[in-house]
Structure to design on (338 residues):
């Protein structure tokens, strides 16, 4: 059985392995022991704090195979993007130009550096073993974060965003970076993303041009990357799109990947989740497949389970499920159809 839980300091070696295997562009998961240790400690502090409104908290989760105690994925929630430093993006909106004398009006698509998205809750750090992509395990890793938000709503904003990794070649070349960012930093795309993971994107973002970049003036290969998803990022995109997230007029500063946005109350796993009580049972006459979580904070757990759910009644869980979720008779749980 796979269970999603908060990261622990003892997970550091395995978390670094996951970081090493993750996509270039997942800058919130750097392959650096010291940075990952800091991430774990920040996450532990966030889970332990009493919070009445969203702040700088980060909540890092790992997906563990209980059979061999191996980590097979990780994901994260940042309560407030841009709380400690601006959260930079590229705003992709047309620039309007007009001439009354010639009776001509023209809209030219343009990219502008901004931090409009600061203040929203940010989903980030998603990585799962390739063998588990596009399975229920991938759904668990992504969507269980949303059940956590549902259970602890005051810790998060009324809007949620995520950046999907943009296109780069197998050799690590990004046509968008080569056409834009590389002119301001003598760095290849892979190195720029590595520095963002080790330090922050702020020091690079502040050196980017703060005037409009007119899209038609970019090479066609770069234009084609605007809003384009890396093939290995499609699974993460599809899951959240089914949750009600939509692309908007913002793209990633370095690779042009799309940003997804949703109002928290309208997200499927939040709006359609049900609260219930656990009931230990010997056997289950399963009628459907669900994501199930407890409503704990520091001891948060979530699994995929075959259940017989009837609204308003306790939910039967077998011994393995109860142990994985750390629940007993009458414990509050939350579930949503898979």
């Amino acid at each position: 059985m796979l269970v999603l839980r908060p990261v622990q300091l003892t997970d550091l070696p395995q978390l670094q392995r996951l970081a090493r295997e993750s996509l270039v562009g997942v800058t919130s998961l750097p392959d650096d022991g010291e940075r990952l240790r800091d991430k774990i400690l920040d996450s532990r502090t966030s889970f332990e704090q009493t919070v009445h409104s969203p702040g700088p908290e980060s909540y890092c989760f790992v997906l563990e195979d209980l059979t061999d105690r191996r980590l097979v994925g990780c994901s994260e929630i940042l309560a407030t993007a841009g709380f400690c430093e601006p959260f930079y993006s590229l705003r992709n909106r047309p620039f309007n130009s007009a001439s009354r004398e010639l009776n001509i009006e023209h809209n030219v698509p343009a990219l502008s550096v901004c931090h409009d998205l600061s203040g929203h809750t940010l989903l980030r750090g998603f990585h799962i073993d390739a063998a588990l992509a596009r399975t229920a395990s991938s759904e668990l890793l992504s969507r269980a974060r949303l059940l956590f938000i549902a259970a602890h709503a005051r810790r998060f904003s009324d809007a949620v965003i995520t950046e999907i990794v943009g296109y780069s070649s197998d050799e690590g070349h990004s046509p968008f970076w080569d056409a834009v960012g590389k002119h301001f930093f003598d760095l290849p795309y892979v190195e720029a993303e590595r520095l963002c993971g080790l330090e922050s994107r702020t020091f690079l973002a502040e050196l980017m041009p703060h005037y409009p970049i007119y899209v038609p003036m970019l090479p066609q290969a770069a234009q084609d990357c605007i809003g384009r998803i890396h093939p290995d990022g499609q699974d993460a995109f599809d899951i959240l799109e089914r949750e009600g997230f939509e692309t908007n007029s913002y793209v990633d500063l370095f690779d042009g990947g799309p940003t997804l946005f949703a109002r928290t109350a309208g997200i499927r796993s939040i709006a359609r989740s049900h609260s219930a009580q656990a009931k230990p049972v010997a056997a289950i006459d399963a009628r459907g497949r669900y994501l199930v979580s407890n409503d704990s904070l520091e001891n948060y757990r979530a699994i995929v389970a075959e259940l017989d759910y009837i609204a308003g009644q306790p939910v039967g869980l077998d011994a393995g499920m109860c142990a994985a979720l750390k629940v007993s008779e009458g414990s509050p749980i939350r579930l949503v159809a898979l």
About this structure: The mean pLDDT is 91. Residues 248 and 260 are 6 Å apart (CA to CA). The longest strand covers residues 89-99.
